[in-house]
Each structure stands twice: as structure tokens, then as C-alpha cells.
Design a protein that fits this description.
Order of helices and strands: EHEHEEHEHEEHHEHHEHEHHEEEEEH
Structural class: alpha+beta
Shape: globular
Distance between the termini: 60 Å
Helix content: 25-40%
Strand order of the largest sheet: 5-6-7-2-13-12
Largest sheet: 6 strands, mixed
Amino acid sequence: MPLPMSPLDSMFLLGESREHPMHVGGVEIFQPPEGADTHDIRAMLDRALAESTGTIAPKLAKRARRSLSSFGQWSWETVDELDLEHHIRHDALPAPGTEAELMALCSRLHESLLDRSRPLWEMHLIEGLSDGRFAVYTKIHHSVADGVTAMKMLRNALSENSEERDMPAPWERAHTRPPRAQSSGGFSLSNLAGATLRTARDTAGDVAGLVPALAGTITRAFRDKGGPLALSAPRTPFNVPITGARQFAAQSWPLERLRLVAKLSDSTINDVVLAMSSGALRSYLEDHDALPAEPLVAMVPVSLQNQRQAATGNNIGVLMCNLGTHQPDAADRLDTIRTSMCEGKEALESMSATQILAMSAVGAAPVGASMLFGHNSRLRPPFNLIISNVPGPSAPLYWNGARLDAIYPLSIPVDGQALNITCTSNDDIISFGVTGCRSAVPDLKSIPARLGHELRVLEESLGI
């Protein structure tokens, strides 16, 4: 029986076109176990493909459909038998098999649309890396999973035990984990009644507080203070209509380097990520004679870890961050970013979870409108790009003994937002993935090197 699709998931399908693929992706690079090579890994995957038991992960076994019975609305339909040979593919890199060739291949793979008559995902095993490692490029439609959900799916498919073998294939249902012990505050009729009363009371308060929350959000935006809304983002070459051609570049750094910069500057690691991006963007725009006098503004998804919001299940908000790109000094840019993010977090902490979601929706609404109706170049951009930091695994992960060395995230450029920077951590490294429209962001491949240069400059400014 078809299951109704949420309005947000439907938006990603409605807003998709040849010029606007709506899937997220990732490139995972693995080191084969000792004594094995990529041919062994391919044989292992081929065997898993031939012997698949049909226990496909639930999210990968459903396809999108709409019909008269659903009144033209999108819904999910479970597919009983998948054509796995369509979803699982093999590719090989041309010589010399460097990561540059890998990123070029993934750029091409990322720009093609997924087949809507099938479940909306693909997985490519990529051989030919010169150092003997192999890569897996995966893409999944944003209506099926966002970056955080995709990361959870990856974690579930892997193991922290390097000796574990006979693991399920990545597309199969993961091992069932034992349920966690219930705390003393578990389910009871009295707890349920109390929770119901609190929810009703909090909801009534939330609705009453939406107007002052909106007024405060608009006031902060007019004063150029951090919060869920910005009104001062300048026009840049990134805020233009886009084509379907994509370019992708990526690079990794030891996480400890960012952690040390954050500690010595009284910042967070996410502030350092934003500062690296700020310096890279300033350098890029200067070299293309396109640096605006006003600072660029980034939309930044943030996690809010206070107890009240965690209890509701809604602990994600959106902040608009002043990137300080008008300032020539790297330390000054980091200080501007830290101040902007602190202001924004303080603003969100004064709101309920419902108010956070509502104000975040106000700030991000223009992007949804451009997805559905196209970019309006006469309007000032709501922000200049999205910069995301998706939490990754904190310990080494393995698939049948093959170690996961790096995860490079690929995201979704849209009309008016031609560039996206997303990073994720893996064990002791942090990897940046830069995805953009090939025509709107020429020389995108230079941005990772600019990120690395900015990290060195930040270290020098702190005497590291």
C-alpha cells in the first residue's frame, strides 16, 4: 500500500529538473585489508550481488509514485524485487588513477538524474586508484535521505571491528542491534498523560510566541546580527541561475589542526570550518575580480544541544553567518564569524523548538521558492551559499576488513545557489567536499587548495 510522502520530501521531487538534480552523494575511499586488493573487493561485491537474499534496506526498497488514487500527490511504494544490477555499478579510473581523476568521474556521475521508475539510489564501485585503494560513489535522492540520514545509513553498513567478515552488502538490511535498556523514566500511563499535557501547553505557548519571535528575528536581521534570517547578503557570481553540469573537488586535513585553532582562538571547530571557507571564498572572488564590498553570508545548519529542545526531538536550526569576507586579515574574519554564530545561537536558545523551525523556515524559504519557480535575479539573495558540517564516525570503520579512509560529501547546487561546501569528519580527519555548477563556478577545483592555505594562515596568526 502506498505511503503518503511528506510535503518537504515532495518538494525535492517537484523542484527537480534536468538542470537541477536533487540527490546528495558521497565518495568513500577504502583501504583493502592486508593481503587483498581491489579485485578481491570486486569479487566480494559481485558475489554479494549474485547471492542477495532480498533483505534490502527499507529506504532503498521504495520508489516514488503518484497516481489518481493519491490525487496526484507523491507517495512511497515498496518494490518487492529490485533490479540490483541497475543500482550497483562498476567503474574504473583512467591512468594515472589519482584522486583528481576520481573527482572528475564523480562530477560526471553526480550530474545525471536518477531513474524515477525505480528506487532513487545508485552505488558505484570505482577501481583504478594508483595507491591500491578503491572508492565507492553513492547517490541517493534528497526525498529519500538528507546528508545526516545518509551518514547514519553508512555507519550502519560498516563495523568498528576490523576482523569482522561475512558482513551484509551495503545495500542490505544491517545487522539488528540489541535494544538499549530503558531508563527509569520510561513509558507509563502517568508519563504519557503528563507528556500530553505538557505538549498541549507548550504548543499553545509556541503559537502565541511566533509573532514576537518573528519580530525579533527581523529586528536582528536589520541590525546585521546573527540569526535565522539575513537581509544583507550581496550579489555574487554564485547567486545566478545554474545548468545541470556539475564540478566537484575535495580534500582532507587532520581534525587535530582545526581543533587546536579552535582551542587557541576560543572558537568552535565549526567556526574554524567557516573561517577556512571565508578565506577560500575571498581569495577565489578576488582572483575573479568579483569580491563584493559587503561580507558574504552563509546559511549554516546548527545542532542545538540544550535539554529542552532535545526532549522534543527538534534540535536542528538554521543560522545566517556573516563570513567577514570584506576583511583582509584571517584572524579578524574568524572573530567576525565567532561573534555572528554566538549571536545566532543565543537568538535560537531564546526560542522553543517550534519557533526555531518556523524562523529557520522563514530564512530558508527563498531557496525553496527558487527550486519550485526558478531564480529571480532582481531580488537580493537571501544568503550566498550553504556551508554544512555533517558529523561523521569518531572511530575507524570497516567493511569486511577494508578500512574506510575518507568520506567526501557531494551536495546540491540550486538556482541562485551555485556553490555548496559540505564537510564531514571520519576518525581523526575532516574532509571538505565542494560541489558547484560547472559554468557558474569556473576553477572550482582551486577551492580546496585555498581552504588549506587559509588553515595555514589561521595557524600562523595564532603562533602554531
